[in-house]
Amino acid sequence: MGKTRLEAFSDGVIAIIITIMVLELKVPHGVILEALLPLGPVLLSYVLSFVYVGIYWNNHHHLLHAVQGVGGGVLWANLHLLFWLSLIPFVTGWMGENHFATVPVAAYGFILFMSSIAYILLVRCLTRHQRENRALAEAIGSDGKGRLSTVLYAAGIALALVHPWLGFAVYIGVALLWFIPDRRIEKRLA
Amino acid sequence: MGKTRLEAFSDGVIAIIITIMVLELKVPHGVILEALLPLGPVLLSYVLSFVYVGIYWNNHHHLLHAVQGVGGGVLWANLHLLFWLSLIPFVTGWMGENHFATVPVAAYGFILFMSSIAYILLVRCLTRHQRENRALAEAIGSDGKGRLSTVLYAAGIALALVHPWLGFAVYIGVALLWFIPDRRIEKRLA
Amino acid sequence: MGKTRLEAFSDGVIAIIITIMVLELKVPHGVILEALLPLGPVLLSYVLSFVYVGIYWNNHHHLLHAVQGVGGGVLWANLHLLFWLSLIPFVTGWMGENHFATVPVAAYGFILFMSSIAYILLVRCLTRHQRENRALAEAIGSDGKGRLSTVLYAAGIALALVHPWLGFAVYIGVALLWFIPDRRIEKRLA
Amino acid sequence: MGKTRLEAFSDGVIAIIITIMVLELKVPHGVILEALLPLGPVLLSYVLSFVYVGIYWNNHHHLLHAVQGVGGGVLWANLHLLFWLSLIPFVTGWMGENHFATVPVAAYGFILFMSSIAYILLVRCLTRHQRENRALAEAIGSDGKGRLSTVLYAAGIALALVHPWLGFAVYIGVALLWFIPDRRIEKRLA
C-alpha cells in the first residue's frame, strides 16, 4: 500500500496541532504593552511546543521518506503517535496558564514521554514488519537517540517534582538534541 | 475523474475532526493532579472517538485505494459520510462532559449508527456505479461486517437506554471488531 | 505554473471551513433529549451550510479539473472566493442562534451572493486569461446557471426582508439547483 | 529530499491560520443590522490579515515552485516563518477588538516585521544552501522588495506610536506593494 495518504493525513493532523495551540493565546483586554505580560508564560510554553511538534514533523518526514510501503499495523502505530501529539496543545495550555507549576510541568513531560515511546513503536513497526525497509532498519541502527530521549523525559518528570524549572530545562535540552533532523537516515539514504 | 482531490479533501476534513475534539479538553484551573480527575470521562470519550475516527480514516483509505475513478454521486456520498463524522466531536463532548449519562450515550450511538449507514451507502455508490470497480465489489462481497456494525449500533442505543455503560460497552466492542483494517480488501487487491 | 498546490490549499481551507462550523454546535448542559431542542435551528443552518460548502467544493473540483495551468490572477481570484466562503461559518452561527431572524437570514444570503460573484470572477479569470483553457471556456458557455444563482440570492435577500422563511426557502432552492455537479463541464471534458 | 511534503505541510498550516482568524468574529447577540457595527474593526483587521496571509501563501508558492530540493536547514527556516505567521490571528484579534489602539497596531506591525525577516531568512537558506537553486538565486537578485518591506514595517511601527492609523496605512501600503506575486521569479523561470 502506498504511503502518500498516510503522509497527507499525518501532515494535516500535525499542521492542525501546531496551529490550534495558538488559540490558547487569548486576546488580552488591555491595550497597553503590560497587557501582554501575563501571556509571557503561555507564549514561552507555546514556543517550546511549536519546536517539539516541528521536531516530530521533521523526523516523521525523514522517517517516512526512507520507507517504501506501509501495512495495516503502521497505520495504527502512526495514529497512536498522533494521539499523544494531539494532547500537546492541552498540556501546553495547562503549563503556560499556570506559570509552570509543578504538576502541569510534569504532565507536559509525561506527554513528551508517551510521544517518544509512540515514535519508537512506529519506527519498530516500520522496520520489523517489512523486508523492503531493511535499508531503514540499518540506517536507524539501535536508535540510541530515541531511547536516550525517553529516559531524559522520565528524568525531566522526576526533576520537575523537585523544581518545575529543572524539568523544563531538561525538555529544552532534549529539544536542542533533536533540533537537527535525523542525520543518520539522511546520510545513509541520501 | 481522478480520486486524488477526493482523498485530499477527505483527509483534511477527517484530520480536522480528529484534532478539534481535543479542544473539548478544557485546560483546568487547578495545578494539582486532582484537577485532572473531572476530565477523566471527557478523556475516555475522546479516546474512543479518536479510535473511531481513526477506524473510519483507515477503512476510507483502504476503500478508495481499491477504487480507480469516482463520479459525481460518489462526491456526495462521501460528503454525506463526512457530515455524520463531523458530528462526532459534538456527541463526544456531550457524552464526556455529562459523565456518560443515558441520553448522550444513546446520541453518541446514533451518530455512529448514521455514520455506518453513510459508509455502506458510499461503498454501494462505488461498487454499483462503475464497471471498473468490479474488483472492489467482489472483494467487499456482501459486506457482512458493515451490516453487523449497523445492527450492533442500534442494539447499543437500545441497551444504553437500559444502562448507559451497556451501550458504551457495545461501542467499544464494535471498535475492537473494526480495529484491524478491512483485510478482505487488502487480501484480494494486494 | 502547476495547479496542484492551488488545489491543495483550497482543499485545506474549504475542509477547515466545513468543519469549524460544527464548533457553533455548543455542547448542551442538560442530559435529556429536550436539551437538544434549542440546537434545532443551529443544526438546520449547519446542514444547509454544509451542503453549500460541499457544492462549492464539488464545483471547484470540477472547474480546476478542467484547467491546465494557473496564473497569478487566478491565485487572487481563488483567494477572493475563499474569503467569502470563510464568512459562511459566521453567518451560519448568526442565523441559527437567532432562530432565523430577518437580518441574519438576509446577511446569510448576502454572503452566498458575494460567494457566487467571486465564483463567476474565478471562472472568468480562468477562461479569459489563458489560451489553453479554451476547452473550459466552451464547456462553461454563457454560465447561465451561475448568473441565475446570483440573481436568485439577491431575490432571496429581498424576500427575507418580507419574511425570513421566504428567503431561506430560496436558498434551499438554489442549493437543490446546484446539488448535481456541473454536468456541462463533466460532459464535454469527460 | 523532495519538497512535496514541505509544501503540503505549509499549505496545511497556512490554510488553518487564514481560516481560524474568522473565529475572532464572534456571533453577535442582536438581530438588527446595528449589531454588526461593533464587528467593523474586527472585520477590517480580518480582511487585512487575510490579504497578508494570502500574500505569504502566494509568494511561498512561487518561491518553492522555483526550488528543486530542500535540506534540513530549510525545514527549520520554513517552520520559523510559520511560527511568526501563526501569531497573525492573535494580533489581528487584539488590533480589531481594541479598535486599532496604539499598542496593538504596533504589535501587529511587529509580527509583520518578524515574518518578513523570517521570509528573507528562508530565501537565503534556499539560495545559499544548494547549488541546484542557482536559478532561484539569480532570479531573486538582491531581493530589494523584501528588504524594503522590512524597513517599511519598522517605519510603520514607529508611525503607529505617533498615531495608529498612520501605522495601519503603512501596512496597507506594503500589502498593495506585494499584491502582485513575485514577478521576478515568475519571469525568469517561466
Number of strands of chain A: 0
Treating each run of at least 4 consecutive H or I residues as one helix, how many helices of chain A?
9
What pattern of helices and strands is seen along the backbone of chain A? HHHHHHHHH
Shape summary of chain A: globular
Largest sheet of chain A: none
Mean pLDDT of chain A: 85
Taking Cα atoms only, what radius of gyration of chain A do you get, to the nearest Å?
18 Å
Category from helices, strands and their pairing of chain A: mainly alpha
Distance between the termini of chain A: 23 Å
Question: Which chains share the greatest interface?
Answer: A-B, 33 and 33 residues
Low-confidence stretches of chain A: none
Helix content of chain A: over 70%
Number of domains of chain A: 1
Oligomer: homotetramer
Percent of sequence in beta strands of chain A: under 5%
Pfam families (chains A, B, C, D): TMEM175
Transmembrane segments (chains A, B, C, D): 6-23, 35-57, 63-88, 100-122, 151-180
Subcellular location (chains A, B, C, D): Membrane
Protein name (chains A, B, C, D): TMEM175 family protein
